[in-house]
Known about the structure:
Structural class: alpha+beta
Amino acid sequence: MSAIRLSRPEDLGALLEIWNASFPGDEAFAKWFLEMHRPEDALVWEDGRPRAMLHLVPMRWAAGGRALSAFYVYAVATLPKSRGKGAASALLMEAAAISKRRGADLLMLVPQSEALFEYYRRQGFREALFRARRVIRPGGAVPPGFEMDETPGIAEMNACFEAALSGRDHVVRTEQHWARSLSYLGALGVRREGKLAGYAVYDGEGAVRELIALDGDARRALEAGVLTRMGIPEAVAFSPDGPGERYGMALALEPGVEIGRAYAGLMLD
Length: 269
């Protein structure tokens, strides 16, 4: 008989099995995430043993001048032999109920593929998260007046993030969120007259997960610096610039919560 419950520390092995069967090639990240994520922020669907899972990452959201509480629904996965039994939809329904009890105003998620947008739409989610994608290539040396910072601080990076997102719905990051992401990802800053004018957060697989620059010169300096730092000729970079492409969805849990074209910059997707 199937049931849904909060995960427990002893479920770690089963969750790793579900993750690796659903997201092959992601083993190192899976181990890192599951070991630092609180068991009580994950749900499992079990049928004798855990066969599907869903994780809830606490977030804050700024929307229309309001401060909202949210959960990022992450790594929804089911063992191949247990698919088609409604596990994912049951987990999503329970996640909404638990998140509402915990005082959240909304849920958000990033579909793993384009095909899943329609699936999540049937679960009540709507397109809400947008970002710009571009390929960055060598464009010469770092412009005069800039210097690269190999160890930008969290407080300054967050100040750049908030300045770049001023007036737009976006995720509000805590120091814990930054520290958790930067324990796995690298970061590079660019300074002008001693002040941080932008940063790039990147992984080891050729992607700049987030590039924030306060102006075009700072962006060009960052692009030149981060490619040198990563040791690759080009990379895909994501930023909040312009209207961007859809990449995430949200579900309002409370009446009156309006979800616009927001930028999440979760760095975990």
